[in-house]
Specification:
two-stranded antiparallel sheet; mainly alpha
Length: 259
């Protein structure tokens, strides 16, 4: 698999670091800048969406689609996300899904490509999955749909919805982008949105991928990005701060960006 220049730089920076609680605490307190982060991170596109709509389902679904394509170069992710939310969805993801407008989306996409390996057919299948689930439930928001379910159950359900886009299998893969989406929705502090008050940020899972696995390998003793390594890193984060364990995920990204 080809690795882009940004990923190579990311890996090189990781190799020079020893991650400890103290390093991440200092990074979170002294280095992290919300404004700078949102200018480069895919999450910033969700904030752009909120300039166009305050509808809860729009924001929930828009964030889910941004998370779904969040792999690779961040500049490319942001460009693809802006096109998806703005040009294809007209900044109204909820209407786009529930009206079935997605069936006519990306008609002029070159080689039917939505983003990298995600093609139009896969994208439409994801949209179908979401539309069917929401329509049959009668729920008006994703938070309402998932109320009463544990975080593990939500991850499993979202993994099933997004299966055509190959985000991983719950219980086997780390489900990085789904865990990141739930951080956006549930965690109370910026840059996260904290929209879902029915779930606790204490229960969130670490955002684990190959880069994070390499960075935290000495800490976790895990050598591959998997659900097991995600759980191990989550345990460590929770032991460091039971109330807000995923502040260390934000700190990890800050360390990597400044390493």
């Amino acid at each position: 698999m080809m690795v882009c220049a940004e990923e190579l730089c990311f890996i090189a920076n990781f190799a020079l670091m020893k991650i400890t609680k103290e390093v991440l605490e200092r990074s979170y307190r002294e280095t992290f800048c919300v404004e700078r982060f949102l200018q480069v991170d895919p999450c910033g596109i969700v904030y752009e969406l909120m300039e166009h709509t305050d509808n809860r389902l729009d924001i929930e679904l828009g964030a889910l689609f941004v998370a779904m394509i969040s792999w690779g170069n961040r500049k490319a992710i942001r460009g693809a996300a802006r096109r998806m939310l703005g040009e294809e969805m007209n900044w109204r993801p909820g209407t786009f899904i529930m009206s079935g407008a997605y069936r006519e989306s990306y008609l002029n996409a070159k080689n039917n490509c939505v983003y990298r390996t995600l093609n139009r057919d896969m994208f439409i299948e994801v949209c179908n999955n979401i539309q069917r689930a929401l329509a049959s439930s009668g729920c008006s928001t994703l938070e309402e749909f998932f109320t009463g379910r544990c975080i593990e159950g939500i991850i499993g359900e979202l993994a099933a919805w997004l299966k055509p886009a190959r985000l991983g299998t719950f219980g086997t893969s780390a489900c990085k982008r789904i865990c990141m989406y739930l951080r956006w929705m549930i965690r109370r502090e910026s840059p996260d949105l904290g929209l879902w008050r029915s779930h606790s940020q204490r229960d969130l899972y670490a955002v684990m991928d190959v880069h994070v696995c390499r960075l935290t390998e000495e800490l976790t003793g895990m050598h591959q990005a998997s659900w097991k390594s995600c759980c191990r890193l989550t345990e460590i984060f929770r032991s460091w701060d039971a109330d807000d364990p995923l502040k260390y995920d934000v700190a990890l990204m800050t360390v990597a960006d400044n390493g």
